Amino acid sequence: MEKSVVGTLYLSSTHTIFVENSDARRETWVLHSLVGSIERPPTTPSGSPLVIRCKNFQVYQLLLPQEKDCVDIQASLIRLSRPDRYGELFCFSFQPNVDKEEREKAWGFLDLHAEFSRMGIPSNLWHITPANHEYRVCDTYPSELFVPKSASPAVIVGSAKFRSRGRLPVLSYFHRDTSAAVCRSSQPLSGFSARSLEDEQMLQAIMKSNPASEYMYVVDTRPKLNAMANRAAGKGYENEDHYTNIKLHFIGIENIHVMRNSQQKITDVGDMRSPSMGDFLWGLENSGWLKHIKAVLDAGVFIVKAVAEEGVSVLVHCSDGWDRTAQACSVASVLLDPFYRTIRGLMVLIEKDWVSFGHKFSHRYSHLEGDPKEVSPVIDQFLECVWQLMEQFPCAFEFNERFLLQLHTHIHSCQYGNFIGNSQKERRDLRINERTHSVWPHLWENRAEYINPLYRADHSQSKGILRPVTTPYCFKFWKGMYSPAERGVALRQSPSDSLNAVREESQQLEEELSAHQEVPRETDAGQGIHAHTRHMPT
Amino acid sequence: MEFAELIKTPRVDGVVLHRPFLPTVEGTLCLTGHHLILSSRQDNTEELWLLHSNIDAIEKRFIGSLGTIIVKCKDLRIIQLDIPGMEECLNIASSIEALSTLDSVSLMYPFFYRPMFEVIEDGWHLFSPEEAFKDLESMTDEWRLSEVNKDFTVCPSYPSLVTVPKDIDDDTLCKAAAFRHGGRFPVLSYYHKKNGMVMMRAGQPLTGTNGRRCKEDEKLINATLRAGKRGYIIDTRTIAVAQQAKARGGGFEQEANYPQWRRIHKAIERSNILQESLIKLVEACNDQSNSMDRWLSKLEASNWQSHVKEILTTACLAAQCIDRSGASVLVHGTEGTDSTLQVTSLAQIILEPACRTIRGFQALVEREWLQAGHPFQQRCAQSAYSNGKPRSEAPVFLLFLDCVWQILRQFPCSFQFNEHFLITLFEHAYASQFGTFLGNSAAESRVKLKLSRKTVSLWSWVNRPQELERFVNPLYEPNSLVIWPSVAPQSLLLWEGVFLRWNRSTKFLDEAYEEMVHIIEYNKELQNKVNSLRRQLAQLETEDSPLQTP
Questions:
Q1: Residue A203 contacts B, CB cutoff 8 Å
Q2: Which residue, B367, B468, B358, B464, is CA-closest to B404?
Q3: What interface predicted TM-score (ipTM) does this complex get?
Q4: Where in this protein does the record put region Disordered (chain A) (predicted)?
């Protein structure tokens, strides 16, 4: 447990700042937009306590001498941490020392065109359709969509009409090795009997775009019961009688409400002060959290098996296609493609599967005062799946846990504009690119902090497909995320940091050597590392 | 007795072996006095050599005339042998059963094993009480080495030499011994150089229901206190358990008789409960069909992690009393041979950097476990698959190793040894070609069994440079500080290296370990290269300089 210190508390328009009275005058800055809740336990003889809980699960406990100050500060913080319009968010006032030109360049740091062409798209079978220009068919999709070349504009528009919120089946990831595609959409408006020839043709076109296969999977990531219940509301899932050659598969990831409650419980578990082992394990089980993480990872594993082993294309959907679908597609991508296990690759993946495809960041992470039922830790679960994978494959990821935690914080903090709003269109209307800054170049500049020393681009784990084991005992409680207090205690010695220091020193030695003469002959022991250190960003 | 009498069928052809992570092998099964061997007679497949003493339990199944024997090992591995012919199968099964449950120690493999390596440094002579006392003498003159137990009559489970306060004579020791369970009078376990505080251990005092006291015992432990100082008695049992012990003649120190001591009770469980916990844990780990809820609930129900937490907490408490409160400590439970040793040895890992080296850890195991009379043979007679009536087996030592692993996880740079070393000790405690863990006490192993003459010491093998290399932690940097582990459940993990070892491949974790070794070795190589270059340069400069001056 951390020691308490005495100091002065300041409230600015953007931060709560605590300055210690000690000689070092250490400062702690907490962004208002990162504050999740402010509690004021009863006043005690020693003062009035105030507990600030942040959305990244950091907890700050304050003790104020005057009760009145405490009440005022709580009221101010409640107001400041829950803006009710976008303009009040920190990203619109955050002014790093960057000029206009640089800011524009920063917004172009990630290029999704380049990402699709890395996958080999457009190709003779897949191309960009202008159908969603000005968000005409779907206002929560990106304006540029990749679809089978064989799908005519009429099929595209017709399919969109038959899908919840117009979110028609489009390409998310193309697996070059097998030519199988991962596509995504929302649920069809099939009800009990409705059908759409265009939608059926759309799926047919997707299947045909993988010439080697004779069928495709439709992965409905919801529990089958939920999917069936949706039929009563005129929605539901594909009728296998109407769609030729599809195989329907249900995964059973629970909805956002279940996940919200589950995370609340796991957070309480992480927060427990000196619990017994029984309390802790019971709490872990009772939260159901790891069960949900396993469901998400299992969805990814199923898709990977279809795409990589059977060479069969997959259409993934849930209800609206912006939560569970994003999870399943992006977990599958991390397993399938080593690029997404690099620092830049993970950024691209989040930009593609989450930001561009209309994951409702502002709703899910309550950037603004709004409906609490819209809030849910959807991307948290994706980040945790990646963390669980890092535990199983320690050499496969270029980044470390700190990178995931930093991403999580930025998604909630609203310091940068990337995750503001709920769709590309909304961000365009808000003129996010002109009014705010992008977080990606900022993370990239600091990438030395996020390097996993065990990663090597030419290591067998870094190449090819990851095949994780998803037996329950392989899942661990993510201490770094949910027990920030314990994080500090147990990371007094980080092997990762000390290895990074060793590698840094090796690099300096290499430089000194090459300045003098040649680098040593590569021995068996040193060979791998040698290649490795050259890959190190400087 | 001849082994041949027990081997009904020495050899069967066409046996198929299934084992974790390795391809199925078909070959000839042979039974020898100490091993079960399966050989395919092909160069490219690995043979199986399994010590009978490693077999914890077997199960037989028949489908037609094809028999199957499931062999469950003490190291938690499960292998399967498909044996054609019902009679052969039954014969093999009963032979294995007989050979793996031999009662006589002197028939154990270590008495027959001849090392294939040259013993350079004999492990039997590395760690003597005399040597340990020499170290102590260099720090303090308040202690002496007593020979009161030289024929093991005062305390059968103590070594012949024990360290006691200088001012306490052997007579007093004998009287105190009569007042302590198993004759285990308080002896020195650890001397904290930093502040001169000590940790002692003993068996429970035999106060009984009428509150017997023993002036000599009081005098003995008071002699370890500085003037005006108080000490702590850590009773590893709950107060309720300690109370109950009175009815059986045991008990705890009464405040009135030990006014200079404060007694603290902890809740480390007794051996039969620990054994049950191990069985449940391993059952949960081996059930691949568990749902997440079921797995977590079984893990909780096994209580294993709770035991780890409780033992570590008690060790931290002992260490805290010594290092932070500057007080001396006496630790005991009931017999003083199980939970007591877990606490005293873990406290030393926390306090004493030397115990975190490979050699120092061996010395610790030797001092606090082997010579201190932990009954290894009884405790390790069966492991997690035992299904018979429980006798006195219990994973006391395994829990200690688990706790060390937890500290190692939290301080990955402060230990000279790695996880593999701990797993190796676990394996050898349960089944080994070496004699180190045979017997139940110094009296039995050193004198009756003549282990040091008749068997090879595990340390003789471990300390060979070739072997040692595998046990060295590449991240090790000597850390002279006290290390305080976190005992929060959030920071304690299931020891996968032991409990999931045969259920999931460690390929990717092993690769990560190798990668780490490579990074560090490459750095060392560069350093050597740079240093020699720097020397050459310096030399060149000194040679060149006279030429340059006109």
A1: no
A2: B358
A3: 0.93
A4: 493-538
Which residue blocks in B268-418 are alpha helix, DSSP H? 271-286, 292-302, 304-323, 339-351, 358-365, 376-379, 396-410
Phi-psi region of B145 (alpha: psi -120 to 50; beta: other; left: phi over 0): beta
Angle in degrees, 0-180, between the axes of helices A324-336 and A378-392, rounded to the nearest 10: 20
- With CA atoms as reference, report the closest residue to B243 among B227, B219, B263: B263
Q: Give kind and range of the element (H or E) at residue A532.
A: helix A527-535
d(CA A424, CA A311): 32
- Asked if A503 and B494 come within 8 Å (Cβ–Cβ), the reply is no
Structure tokens at A261: 């409650």
pLDDT tens profile B117-148: 998 899 999 998 998 999 999 999 999 999 99
Window 422-441 of A, Cβ < 8 Å to B: none
| Cβ neighbours for A520, distance < 8 A, ≥ 6 positions apart | A513, A526, B525, B526, B529
> With an 8 Å Cβ cutoff, are A281 and B489 in contact?
yes
Residue B235 has pLDDT above 80, yes or no: yes
Which residues in chain A (137-176) have CB-CB distances under 8 A to chain B?
Answer: none
Distances (CA, A) of A180 to A146, A168, A240, A329: 14, 18, 20, 13
Of residues A270, A475, A490, nearest to B410 (C-beta) = A490
Residue A534's pLDDT is: 36
Smallest CA-to-CA distance from A419 within A378, A381, A457, A452 is with: A378
Sites in chain A below the pLDDT cut of 70: 1-2, 487-492, 517-538
Q: Which two tokens stand for residue A152?
A: 């005519």
| Geometric angle at alpha carbon A38, from A36 and A39, rounded to 5° | 135
pLDDT of residue A529: 39
Give strand pairing partners of A163: A188
pLDDT in tens, B323-337: 999 999 999 999 999
Residue B156 has φ and ψ, to the nearest 5°, of -65, -25
Q: What is the 3-state secondary structure (H, E, C) of B294-315?
A: HHHHHHHHHCHHHHHHHHHHHH
pLDDT digits (tens, 9 = 90+) for B501-534: 999 999 999 999 999 999 999 999 999 999 998 8
Q: Which amino acid is at B386?
A: S
Which residues in chain B are closer than 8 Å to A274, comparing Cβ atoms? Answer: 488
DSSP string covering A270-284 = HH-SS--HHHHHHHH
Spatial distance between the Cα atoms of A222 and B33, rounded to a whole number of angstroms: 59
The answer to whether the CB of A239 falls within 8 A of the CB of A190 is yes
Produce one character per residue of A14-23: b if its CB has 16 or more CB atoms within 10 Å, e if not. bbbebeeeee
Residues facing A173 on adjacent strands: A182
Residue A148: is the preceding peptide bond cis (ω within 30°)? no
Residues of A with Cβ-Cβ distance to B415 under 8 angstroms: none
Q: Does A388 touch chain B (CB under 8 A)?
A: no
Question: Are B235 and B252 within 8 A, CB to CB?
Answer: yes
Subunit contact A459:B515, Cβ cutoff 8 A: yes
DSSP codes joined into one string, A291-347: HHHHHHHHHHHHHHIIIIII---EEEE-SSSSSHHHHHHHHHHHHH-GGGGSHHHHH
Burial call A127-166: b when 16+ CB within 10 Å, e when fewer: bbbebbeebebbbbbbbbbbbbebbbeebbebbbebbbbb
DSSP A222: S
Beta strands at A246-250 and A216-220: parallel, antiparallel or unpaired: parallel
If DSSP codes are grouped into helix, strand and coil, which group holds residue A11? strand
Among A70, A138, A318, A385, which one carries the catalytic annotation? A318
